[in-house]
Amino acid sequence: MKVIVIGATGAIGKAVTEELGKRHEVVTVGASSGQYQADFTDIAQVRSLFAKVGKVDAVVVAAGALHFAPLASFTPEQFHVGLNSKLMGQVNVALVAQDYLNDGGSITLTSGIVAEEPIRNGVSASMVNSAVEGFVRGAAVELPRGLRINVVSPTVLQESMESYGPFFIGFEPIAASRAALSYARSVDGVQTGQIYKAW
């Protein structure tokens, strides 16, 4: 299969690229690196990306920015960081991918454990991750041509503990390679509308 991985240079993206690369042709995409570059918050750039890559069998998104701050000080602009990036960026990819996926192809998006397990300073992350999961459940019942869509919800990664560890006190981190197995399950499997929990 030919698979696009967006966010291919991040901790999860690298592991997903390595895992899928064992069986498939992987096209890597990043904001400023990879085989192709695109800002997925701009749907015009997403359209241009797919026009260049052409038909594919699967699309994986392992990207998206979020703002972490106390609710008392949160501003609408800070909420829009996650809404514009991790939510609408992934929705943009899903919308465009429909026209470039071969019959039976799949889309795999990324949410996160805080959709179910809120953390201090993580209200935007909980909101956005929950919204991504809601989008996937809704889209799964409408996609044509046997197209599938799932979402992977990872916990904090061992590789990210230096940056995110203080937000995830008491959570057991997992290796990115373990999270990548859930993406492989989505790409190589048969289910749709699923939330694969990598916890």
TrEMBL record:
GO terms for molecular function: oxidoreductase activity. CDD domains: Lin1944_like_SDR_c. Keywords: Oxidoreductase. The keyword Oxidoreductase applies. NCBIfam families: PRK07578.1. Belongs to the short-chain dehydrogenases/reductases (SDR) family. PANTHER family: DIHYDROANTICAPSIN 7-DEHYDROGENASE. This is Short chain dehydrogenase. It comes from Duganella alba. The lineage of its organism: Bacteria, Pseudomonadati, Pseudomonadota, Betaproteobacteria, Burkholderiales.
